[in-house]
Prior knowledge:
By secondary structure, the chain is α/β, with parallel strands linked by helices. Helix 9 runs antiparallel to helix 11 (446-456). It is 53% helix and 19% strand.
Amino acid sequence: MLSFKSTLRGKILFSYLLIILIAIIAFALTTYFQTTQSILLISLAFFLVSAIIAICLSKQLTKPLDQLIQDTDKMAQTLKQTSDQKRKAEQNLQKTRDELEISVEKRTAQLKREIEDKLLVEEKYKKVMDASPVPIAVYDMDGSPIYINPAFTQTFGWSLNEFQEEKTRYIPPEEYELNVQIRKKIIRGENGHGIETRRYNKYREVLDVNISFDVWRGKNNVPIGCVVILHDITQSKKMEQQLFQSRKMEAMGTLAGGIAHDFNNILSGIFAFSQLAQRHADNASKAKEHIHQIVKGAQRASKLVQQILTFCRQTEYQKKALNFDIIIKEALNLFVSTIPSTITIHEEIASQITIIADSTQIHQVIMNLCTNAYHAMIRTGGTLSVRLTEHQITPQHVSTDFNIKPGTYARLEVQDTGHGMNKEVLEKAFDPYFTTKEVGKGTGFGLALVKAIVEAHDGYIRIHSIPEEGTQFEVYLPCEKYQRIEDCTNSNESTITGGNEHIMVVDDEQSIRLATQEFLEDYGYEITAFKNGDEALKAFKKTPDKFDLVLTDMTMPKMTGDQLVKKLLDIKKELPIILCTGYSEKINESKALKAGVRFFAQKPISNQKLDAMIRSALNPS
C-alpha cells in the first residue's frame, strides 16, 4: 500500500513539472516572436500539447485511483462487517453474561436451600440418634469415629475425643478377625444385622454386644461412612446363663436319686472289697483281686463325678471337634442309673461321627431330651430309643415345614413310647416356660433350651408325635470330616516308664502327697514334697535348677496352684508344670494351658496316666 502511494505521488509531481516547463517554453517563444499570429499558433500548440499530456496523465492517474477506490470500498465493507460481527459478539457476550449471572444466582439460591435442608436433615437425624437409648457410632470410610451418641458414652464411658484416641483398645484381641470381616463388608457397601461379639469399655471390662451396621452414602450413592448400632446384651447373656444353669439344676434334681443310688452301690463295693483285702492280706493272690475290684469301683466313682461336673459346670462355651458317639454314651451312662426298671434304653450309636460343638451344651441337649422322654413314660414305662447316624440332606429333602440346608449331618434321634402330644401341645413344645407338668415338677424351659443350643450350633430340630403312641425328636448337627479325638493323657495303662528326674510335689492333702511321692520314688524319680505353695516357692527360689518338673494341686491354703505357677514361671520360664485339681471354678484346662502349664489334670489320676503326663512334659515331642 505504501509503494502504491509513493508511485502515485511521483507521477503527479512529474506532471506538474512538465506543465510548468511547457508554460516556460511557451512564454519564451512568445517573447521571441512578438507577433499575434505567433501567439495564436503557440497557444494552439500549447493547448494541443496540454491536451495530449492531460489525456496521458488522466490514464496514468485514474487507473490507480479507481483501484484505490475499489480497495477502499472493499476495506470499508470488510471493516463494516467486522464491526457488525464485533457488535453482535459483544451483544451475545453481554447476553451470556446476563444469563450466567441469572444462573449463578439461581444455583446459589438452590445450593443455599440444599445446604439448609441438609443441615435440617442432619440435625433431625442427630436429634434422633442423641435421643436413642441404644449406643450409636458413626465412622468415616477409614474407620475413624466422627460421632457417638450419649447412650454410647453412657454404656462404654468414652467421650468422642477419647474414643477417637482409644478406638484401638476398644476391640478385644479375640474379636479382631470378626472385626476385619465387618470392615470388608462396609468397604464393599454391604450391611449387617445381629452380629454377636464383644467390646471393651473405658474401664477394660468386656461387654457382650449385638451389632448392626449400614453404609452411609453421599452424592452419586458413593459410600462415605457407616452407622453402627450396638445393643448391650451383657445382662441378658447373664440371665440366659442363669436360666441354662437353672435348667441344669432342675435336671440334676431329677437325677439326684439315681446318682445317690449309683454312688452308694459303688461305695458298697469299695467297702466290701477293702474288708476282704484286709482279711486276705496274707494271701497275695486273693488280696490282689480284691484290690483290683476296689480300683475299678474308684474309677466308676471318678467317671460319675466327671459326668456330673461336666453337666453342671458354669463356664464359657467353647466349640471344638468332638466325637459325637462318646458324648452320647457319657450322657446315657449318667442317665441310666436314674430311670426305673420299667423303662428300657435301646441304643443304636454309630461311631466315627465328628461335630464341631461345645461338649457341655451337647451333653445338656441329650440329657434334656432323655429327661423329657423319661417324664412321658414315668407312669406306664416303655422304651427309650437313642440313635445316631450320619445323614445326607439333598435339596429334595428341603420343605416348607423343615427348611434345612443341604449337606452332611449327624442325626440324633431320641424316641419314647409315652403318652405323646396333640397338635396344640406340639405347636407350643419349644415355647419357653410352656409345660404340661404339674406345679413343682419342672419349669418347661428344657425344650426351649434344647432348640436354642441346637440353633447356636447351626443345627435343626423337629418333633414327630402321636397321642398315646409316643414322641420322636430329631436333631441335625453339621458333620465334620471324621477325626478321632484322642486324649493325650490316655497312654498305655499297663506300662509305666519311670525316670530319674527331680520332681517337686505340692499338695495340701497328706494322703495324696504321700501316695504320689511313694509311687514316683518306686519308679526311680527323686521327690521333694511340700504341703503348701509358700514352702514350695521358698525352696524353689533357693535352688531353681534343682527341680526338673513341678506337680502341684490347685486348691491349697496360703497360695493357690495358679498363683504358684505364675511365680515359678517368672523365675524359670521353661519349667515343666502339671497342675491338678479335684474341682475349681477359678481355672479350667484352657486357662491353665494359657498360663504356661504343660498339662492340666482332673483328680483322681491313675498312676499310669500320671507317669505318661510326666514323661510327655519332660520330653515334649
